[in-house]
Specification:
With 173 residues, the chain is an alpha+beta fold. The protein has four helices and five strands, in the order αβββββααα. The longest helix is centred in the C-terminal third of the chain and has 42 residues. The chain is elongated and about 75 Å long.
Amino acid sequence: MGREEQIEEREVLDSIFPDEITGLLRHLSGSSMPQTNSAKTIDIDEKSYRIAIKPEIPQDDNDEDAEPPTFLLTITYPPSYPDEAPLLDLSLPPNAPKPPHLDISTDRHHLLSSLTPTISENIGMAMIYTLVTTLQENIETLIRERIAVVQRAKDQEAEDAEAKENAKFHGEK
């Protein structure tokens, strides 16, 4: 029963994320890799795939033409999914620039852990769409919070500079 649900969910996800979803190829060694034309590949791994997530975040005023960062959520179905949580990993595309305000190597654990309540609530049901949208929201929230911290620091620095400048014009009492 689990395998049928996995196939059905994947078909639905293919229709929702036609440009964002990528199958992974299974190699002779059994490891999964992104689709490539390699002589060693056997077939597409039916239990693993990636979905590209592009969070909607405010752009820096200095870099309005910059592409928003893309994150890759790799999903692997365990044999008893959806009665068991999917295996998840979060990464950046190869050669992608490091997104500002987020370090995937240090933030990966926090972002994936933030999905635990959603996984618990959805055990027994198809949950990948919900996980993708929740992860996207969590990435956006984390980046916005960090942008706000940087902006507050800039604002405080400007206030301090202004107070220092105004002090020059106030004589001694």
